[in-house]
């Protein structure tokens, strides 16, 4: 079973995981709404993309939908995209129209992909405004949720 490595340093969190798939397939799973929705939520939650435009200054508006139908919305804004090795942007909690909820931390991230013909290592470097903001999302279960989502991604990649 693959191991996800979490390293916190001040207001920055680095998450690294190697997946058993070539880089182009892993890139697609991170950048296409139909594939993201298959894994970007901890079970039994589901991801539901309302809209996604994967290009610089594009956005993804999506919900994490719980087993009782409850929805928690997120907005990803893409900044730089260098296919298939890196993309960066920001993530924020929002409402179903994309209005950012200022009570929760906003994260800026850089996702790096390094691969060969058999595996791809994804490194996600996330920066928060403060160490307190990072601790807030960790206390909300971000590490456990991401680990479960990555396990979902393993299953999606096996089917691609």
Outline:
With 160 residues, the chain is of the alpha+beta class.
Provide structural commentary.
The protein has helices at residues 23-31, 33-39, 131-139, 142-159, and strands at 5-9, 12-19, 46-52, 59-65, 71-82, 86-94, 107-115, 120-127. With 160 residues, it is α+β, with helices and mostly antiparallel strands. The mean pLDDT is 96. The chain has one domain (5-159): START domain (Alpha-D-Glucose-1,6-Bisphosphate, Chain A, domain 4, 2-Layer Sandwich), CATH 3.30.530.20. It has four helices and eight strands, in the order ββααββββββαα. It has an eight-stranded antiparallel sheet with strand order 1-2-8-7-6-5-4-3. Strand 7 and strand 8 form a beta hairpin. The two termini are 19 Å apart. The radius of gyration is 15 Å and the shape is globular.
């Amino acid at each position: 079973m693959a191991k996800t490595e979490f390293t916190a340093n001040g207001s920055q969190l680095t998450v690294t995981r190697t997946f058993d798939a070539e880089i182009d397939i892993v890139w697609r799973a991170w950048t296409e709404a139909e594939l993201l929705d298959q894994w970007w939520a901890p079970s039994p939650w589901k991801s539901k993309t309302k809209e996604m435009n994967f290009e610089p200054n594009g956005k993804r508006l999506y919900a994490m939908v719980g087993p009782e139908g409850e929805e928690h919305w997120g907005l990803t804004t893409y900044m730089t995209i260098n296919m298939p090795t890196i993309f960066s942007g920001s993530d924020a909690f929002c409402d179903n129209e994309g209005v950012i909820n200022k009570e929760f931390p906003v994260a800026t991230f850089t996702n790096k992909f390094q691969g060969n013909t058999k595996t791809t290592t994804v490194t996600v470097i996330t920066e928060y405004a403060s160490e307190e903001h990072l601790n807030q999302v960790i206390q909300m279960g971000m590490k456990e949720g991401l680990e479960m989502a990555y396990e979902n991604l393993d299953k999606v990649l096996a089917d691609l």
